[in-house]
Design goal:
It is an enzyme of class 1 (oxidoreductase). Belongs to the Gfo/Idh/MocA family. The structure is a single chain. Strand 1, helix 1 and strand 2 form a beta-alpha-beta unit. 36% of the residues lie in helices and 22% in strands. The chain has a 7-stranded mixed sheet with strand order 12-11-7-10-9-8-15, covered by helices on one side. Strands 3-2-1-4-5-6 form a 6-stranded parallel sheet, with helices on both faces. Helix 4 packs parallel to helix 5, helix 5 runs antiparallel to helix 10 and helix 7 crosses helix 10. It is of the alpha/beta class and 338 residues long. The radius of gyration is 20 Å and the shape is globular. The structure holds nicotinamide-adenine-dinucleotide (NAD) and (2R,3S,4s,5R,6S)-2,3,4,5,6-pentahydroxycyclohexanone. The site of (2R,3S,4s,5R,6S)-2,3,4,5,6-pentahydroxycyclohexanone (ISE) has 5 residues, from helix 7.
Length: 338
């Protein structure tokens, strides 16, 4: 049984605790910590886990074999570094860290440890539709890929959400997905600002991002974070001989009263429910069998941060911004995980 400690028991922390306590096999949540002690105590009491005053104390505990970091992005670096220093595997929700410099510090620490400990929560790699799309691409049946069209739509976002978060917090999922889907790197980013939605207050919403890949493939990503009607994730690849798109998720299609309708998920928890389950079960199984994570690595977290930084610069300047990655350390090989 893998004993897991969860740092950050907010929205996604609770969701991952629920799956580790009542859905998945081979795992037990033995410890929790949150900067808000009331939230941590309520959670600890409910699931019978030890509550620690700080994430660092949780990481040091002998009752914790592996750590899950679900706190706010700017706090990820300190906990990931502490887990590496303790030699414990750590699953960090996206983003790995909020600056590429912080991601580089994590890469250095993991390289000094000598083997992989870090996995980053880019769950789209575990989603059945994205996996099926990648598999169609791999068979060559639509020919060489030329373009991909993506949309990432949230019904609404919290009050603290700022315009650059459409890139660093939202489109960062497409950044990782695109690198994985095409086994390629993004080499430049442009960001266009369409007419502003009146539903987003001062937010510059929507945005239109354009990624160039080293193969010449172009990927456009619409982010709309006040779309109201639900959580809608789209992706279509245009190849030389055909196209392939993410399919409908609904097991049932309803036609009534002059309408033909599929339900739209409310949020990421509903849309990626199964993907998070697979992501965590594969992580748990990997740690229990070989002791090493095999999903999205610290390198993937770093690469996403560099592209995301380029996107922020492109948004501010209106210019095309090239992406320059550091040399990939040997530890991460050339494989694209999961
Ligand atoms: P949230 O605000 O609901 O929860 C975060 C929790 O972390 C809060 O309870 C807060 O008190 C706690 N916290 C903050 N600083 C802390 C610290 N220094 N030490 C310990 N606890 C601390 O946020 P959320 O929506 O659950 O997001 C958390 C992380 O998960 C973010 O990095 C976010 O980007 C990521 N996320 C990923 C997905 C996904 O689809 N993979 C979806 C949502 C959120
Ligand atoms: C949130 O943090 C996520 O990661 C969701 O998957 C994404 O859709 C949302 O825009 C982010 O704020």
């Amino acid at each position: 049984m893998l004993q897991v400690g969860v740092i950050g028991t907010g929205m996604i922390g609770q969701d991952h605790i629920r799956r580790m306590t009542s859905v998945l096999a081979g795992v037990r949540v033995t410890a929790v910590a949150d900067v808000d002690p009331a939230v941590a105590f309520r959670t600890g009491e409910r699931i019978g886990a030890t509550v620690f005053a700080t994430g660092e104390e949780l990481i040091a505990s002998s009752g914790v074999d592996a750590v899950v970091v679900c706190s706010w992005g700017p706090t990820h670096e300190q906990y990931v570094l502490a887990a590496i220093a303790a030699g414990k595997p750590v699953f960090c929700e996206k983003p790995l860290a909020t600056t590429q410099e912080a991601c580089l510090r994590i890469l250095e620490a993991e390289a000094a440890h000598g083997s992989r400990l870090v996995q980053v929560g880019y769950m789209r790699r575990y989603d059945a539709s994205y996996r099926a799309l990648k598999s169609v691409l791999g068979t060559g049946q639509i020919g060489a890929p030329l373009m991909m069209h993506c949309a990432h739509r949230n019904a609404s976002v919290p009050g603290f959400y700022e315009k650059e978060m459409a890139i660093t917090d939202t489109a960062v999922h497409e950044i990782d997905m695109v690198r994985w889907m095409f086994d390629d790197e993004i080499t430049a980013v442009r960001v266009l600002t369409p007419r502003r939605s009146s539903l987003g207050g001062d937010l510059q919403d929507p945005l239109m991002l354009l990624f160039e890949l080293s193969s010449g493939v172009l990927v456009d990503v619409e982010t709309s974070v006040n779309i109201r009607y639900g959580y809608d994730i789209r992706g279509e690849i245009v190849g030389e001989e055909g196209t392939a798109a993410l399919g409908s998720l609904s097991p049932v299609h309803v036609r009534r009263a002059g309408l033909s309708a599929d339900p739209v998920p409310a949020d990421w928890r509903e849309r990626f429910l199964a993907a998070y389950d697979v992501e965590f079960q594969e992580w748990i199984d990997a740690l229990r069998s070989g002791g090493r994570p095999v999903g999205p690595s610290a390198w993937d977290g770093y690469a996403a941060a560099v592209v995301s930084d380029a996107g922020v610069l492109a948004l501010r300047s209106g210019e095309r911004v090239p992406v320059v990655l550091a040399e990939r350390p040997k530890l991460y090989g050339m494989e694209v995980a999961a």
